[in-house]
C-alpha cells in the first residue's frame, strides 16, 4: 500500500489529505472518506486503509483546515468540556457549500494522479459528514456514482441544500445506514427521509441497524457494535463493487 499526506490547494487555503491506495494494478476508483466531528485521527486513517486494501484510491481530508486545525486529539464524553465545545464550534463552522468546494478540489487533484481512476468515484461520510457524502453525489453526479451516509446528521432540514431535497440530482446510488437509537437522527427523521426519497424516485436505500447507537461503526467508541460495523463494511463495499 502507498500512503501520503498531501496539502491540496482549495479556494480557501490548503486541505491536508491522507491518501492511501494499492501500490499496483491501478488506476483505482477514487473514494472520498469524509471525517466525523472529532476530526482526523488514527481510527479514521485505519478505516481509510481498509477501504484502500479493497482496491480504492482513498482520500481523507481534514475539513477543519479553515480554522487552522488538523487533529483535535481525544474528546471527553462530558458535553461541557472545553474540548467538546470546541469540536461543536468547528463542526458548526462548516457548510455543505464549503465542503463541496473542497470536494471539487479533491476530485481535480485526483484527476491528475496516475494511480487514480478518472471514472466513477464514491463517497462515504460518518456523523456530521453523512450529508457531505450524499451532497457530493448530488453536486458532482458525473463523478460520484455511489455515496453512503453512516448515521448521518442533518439529512432532513428546511435548508434548500438539505440532502433529502437535493437527492434527486444524484445519478448513481445512495445508501443510508442509520442507528436505531440516535438523538441526532431520530425515527421521525428517518421516516421523513424514506418518504422523501421514495416520493422522488431516488435510487436509494435506507437501512436501520437494530440495537445500535450513533457511532456504532467506530472501534474506539464505547457504543461500538462489531456485528453492525462489519455489516456496514459489507454493504459499503458491495455498493462500490456495483457502481465503481
TrEMBL record:
Transmembrane segments annotated in the record for this chain: none
Origin: domain of life: Bacteria
Keywords, sorted A to Z: Hydrolase
GO molecular function, one term: hydrolase activity
Pfam families to which the protein is assigned, alphabetical: DLH
Protein's UniProt keywords contain Nucleotidyltransferase: no
Domain Dienelactone hydrolase: 17-241
PANTHER family: CARBOXYMETHYLENEBUTENOLIDASE HOMOLOG, CARBOXYMETHYLENEBUTENOLIDASE-RELATED
Protein known as: Dienelactone hydrolase family protein
Highest classification ranks of the organism: Bacteria, Pseudomonadati, Pseudomonadota, Alphaproteobacteria, Hyphomicrobiales
Amino acid at each position: 500500500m502507498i500512503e501520503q499526506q498531501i496539502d491540496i490547494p482549495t479556494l480557501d487555503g490548503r486541505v491536508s489529505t491522507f491518501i492511501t491506495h494499492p501500490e499496483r494494478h491501478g488506476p483505482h476508483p477514487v473514494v472520498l472518506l469524509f471525517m466525523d466531528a472529532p476530526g482526523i485521527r488514527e481510527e479514521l486513517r485505519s478505516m481509510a486503509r481498509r477501504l484502500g486494501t479493497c482496491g480504492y484510491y482513498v482520500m481523507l481530508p481534514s475539513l477543519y483546515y479553515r480554522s487552522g486545525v488538523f487533529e483535535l486529539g481525544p474528546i471527553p464524553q462530558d458535553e461541557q468540556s472545553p474540548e467538546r465545545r470546541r469540536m461543536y464550534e468547528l463542526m458548526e463552522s462548516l457548510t455543505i457549500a464549503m465542503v463541496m468546494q473542497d470536494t471539487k478540489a479533491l476530485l481535480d487533484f485526483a484527476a491528475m494522479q496516475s494511480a487514480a481512476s478518472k471514472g466513477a468515484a464514491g463517497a462515504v461520510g460518518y456523523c456530521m459528514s453523512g450529508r457531505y457524502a450524499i451532497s457530493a453525489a448530488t453536486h458532482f453526479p458525473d463523478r460520484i456514482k455511489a455515496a453512503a451516509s453512516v448515521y448521518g446528521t442533518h439529512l432532513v432540514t428546511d435548508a434548500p441544500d438539505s440532502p433529502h431535497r437535493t437527492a434527486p440530482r444524484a445519478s448513481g446510488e445512495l445508501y443510508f445506514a442509520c442507528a436505531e437509537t440516535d438523538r441526532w437522527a431520530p425515527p421521525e427523521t428517518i421516516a421523513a427521509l424514506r418518504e422523501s426519497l421514495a416520493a422522488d424516485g431516488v435510487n436509494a436505500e435506507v437501512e436501520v441497524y437494530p440495537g445500535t447507537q450513533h457511532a456504532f461503526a467506530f472501534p474506539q467508541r464505547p457504543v461500538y457494535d462489531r456485528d453492525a460495523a462489519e455489516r456496514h463494511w459489507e454493504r459499503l463495499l458491495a455498493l462500490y463493487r456495483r457502481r465503481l
